[in-house]
Write a structure and sequence with these properties.
26% of the residues lie in helices and 36% in strands. The protein has 180 residues and is α+β, with helices and mostly antiparallel strands. GO terms for molecular function: acyltransferase activity, transferring groups other than amino-acyl groups.
Length: 180
């Protein structure tokens, strides 16, 4: 699906196996150089293939945003917790390639992700956002109707410091709120 992003020709579409090298590279940037994720070892392409197969097998969206045919970011909805009673709740993940932030790609990905979740029976979307010192991810989520659900203090230790996470939640039982 083409998405209107001023000044950028963006296509948001389901991820394909051929995209996973780029996805792995984007995520590796955050794993090795930031606290945006608590992973410490970047997953390889085979790991991403397994994740893609698992999520699409569950009917959950795994999307990429391309600019000029190049993968510039990705987003997916994964199970929030493994226990069966949580089956209608997912956690979202959104990552953009270095140099691609601030261009509206996160907004395009999150909008498409939220629109695709109800088809998989999703009722609640949870965002677990590492406190990196930037409010950009939380602000993006708020613009789509996510509300603060709590803060977990000092739950991650990475790059020599303790990191909090902010929990946000979006109820999908009404219409999907398109960010402003």
């Amino acid at each position: 699906m083409a998405v209107a992003v001023p000044g950028v020709d963006v296509l948001v579409r389901p991820a394909e196996p051929g995209d996973l090298g780029a996805v792995a590279g984007i995520y590796e940037h955050y794993v090795l150089g930031s606290v945006a994720t608590f992973e410490e070892v970047p997953p390889g392409v085979a790991d991403w293939r397994q994740r893609l197969d698992d999520l699409t097998g569950r009917g959950l969206p795994f999307l990429v945003a391309t600019v000029g045919g190049e993968v510039a970011g990705y987003a997916y909805a994964g199970p929030w917790r493994p226990k069966p009673a949580y089956r209608h709740t997912v956690e979202d993940s959104i990552y953009l390639a270095p140099g691609r932030t601030g261009q509206g790609l996160g907004r395009a990905l999150l909008g498409a992700l939220l629109a695709g979740c109800p088809r998989a029976g999703v009722r609640q979307v949870v965002a677990v956002i590492a406190d990196t010192g930037s409010d950009a991810s939380a602000a993006l989520h708020r613009s789509f109707g996510f509300t603060d659900a709590g803060r977990l203090v000092g739950v991650g230790y990475k790059h020599g410091r303790w990191v909090d996470t902010v929990l946000m939640q979006r109820d999908l039982t009404g219409s999907v709120h398109i960010g402003q």
